[in-house]
């Protein structure tokens, strides 16, 4: 699971970086910098809290889905 940021929604309150400083930094204007690293299990609760606490709903948790590389059979005609 990873944290993603919609920068067009963010107003730079900085709550997220206070809650989750291990994964979120702030730039010189107070806007979050989300590195996109995998969230360790030990920080998952704090990550969920940071997402819920965002007043502008600019953060989200995403689960990457592994795509199969196996060949697919052709669609029926």
Structure explained in plain terms:
The chain has a two-stranded antiparallel sheet with strand order 1-4. It has helices at residues 15-19, 44-53; strands spanning 2-5, 24-26, 32-34, 59-62. The model has no long low-confidence stretch (mean pLDDT 89). It has 2 helices and 4 strands. The protein is α+β, with helices and mostly antiparallel strands. The chain has one domain: Alpha-Beta Plaits (2-Layer Sandwich), CATH 3.30.70.
Features of this protein?
two-stranded antiparallel sheet; elongated; two-stranded antiparallel ribbon; alpha+beta; 4 strands; Alpha-Beta Plaits; 18% strand; 77 residues; 2 helices
Topology at a glance:
Layout: E1 2-5, H1 15-19, E2 24-26, E3 32-34, H2 44-53, E4 59-62
Antiparallel strand pairs: 1-4, 2-3
State the gist of this model.
By secondary structure, this protein is α+β, with helices and mostly antiparallel strands.
CATH class: Alpha Beta
> How many helical elements?
2
Which residues sit in consecutive blocks of at least 5 with pLDDT less than 50?
A: none
Overall geometric form: elongated
Give the strand tally. 4
Strand content: 15-25%
Q: Identify the strand order in the major beta sheet.
A: 1-4
Helix content: 10-25%
Helix/strand class = alpha+beta
The CATH architecture is 2-Layer Sandwich
**Whole-number count of domains:** 1
**Main sheet overview:** 2 strands, antiparallel
Return the string of H and E elements.
Answer: EHEEHE
Q: CATH topology, anyone? A: Alpha-Beta Plaits
Radius of gyration: 16 Å
What is the first-to-last residue Cα distance?
38 Å
Give average pLDDT, whole number: 89
